[in-house]
Amino acid sequence: MLWLRLALASLWVLCVSSETAAWSWGVQGFFELESALFLNEATVRAPEAGYKLHAKLALRPYWSDKIFDEHLLELHLEKPVLMLRGAGKHPDFHVHHSRWDELHNVPFYVQWRAGVVLTVHVDARLEPDLVGYLKSLASLLQIERVEELTLSTPLALSRTEVKDMRTL
């Protein structure tokens, strides 16, 4: 039996694009995102099979209450591209059209207070894995300070509520 080594390289590259020199409240910002997952047989030295998801993330403040440091942020992905790579015969990444294309310009909202993501509002018609991906993007905004972190400490985002956008 071949054992598969899962090389999870969930690479979240979040960087300000050249279109935006700086980001501030009231101004829409753009960020480049790339995540990747690679699978490889432990005994084979060939290129890994895997996928990459690349997109531009647009973020703009939708509403702010500066007194309570609470904000509702509107986010959407521009041109998400899923790329697949097979091991062996097809070592290069190739664009694969899939339901991930549906995320293009679909807004979702993040309720954010003092560095903590409280609620993620998404379209209820989206598939659960797409909702999970949007929730993971919201987690990039999470900057909660923790006094002591242990392996058993759950991520703060696991307490975050996901709601249908129509409840706004």
Structure, described:
This protein has one helix at residues 128-139, and strands spanning 4-7, 15-16, 29-41, 49-65, 70-85, 94-95, 108-113, 116-122, 161-164. Strands 1, 2, 3, 4, 5, 6, 7, 8 and 9 form a nine-stranded mixed sheet that branches. The longest helix is centred in the C-terminal third of the chain and has 12 residues, at 128-139. With 168 residues, the chain is mainly β. Strand 4 (49-65) and strand 5 form a beta hairpin. It has one domain (4-167). The protein has one helix and nine strands. Helices cover 7% and strands 42% of the residues.
Total E-strand runs: 9
Number of helices: 1
The arrangement of helices and strands along the chain is: EEEEEEEEHE
> C-alpha Rg, in Å?
18 Å
Distance between the termini: 52 Å
Main sheet: strands, sense, barrel: 9 strands, mixed
Helix proportion range:
under 10%
Tell me briefly what this model is.
By secondary structure, this protein is mostly beta strands. The protein is built from 1 helix and 9 strands.
Name some characteristics of this structure.
168 residues, mainly beta, disordered N terminus
Topology of this structure?
Elements: E1 4-7, E2 15-16, E3 29-41, E4 49-65, E5 70-85, E6 94-95, E7 108-113, E8 116-122, H1 128-139, E9 161-164
Parallel strand pairs: 8-9
Antiparallel strand pairs: 1-3, 2-3, 3-4, 4-5, 5-6, 5-7, 7-8
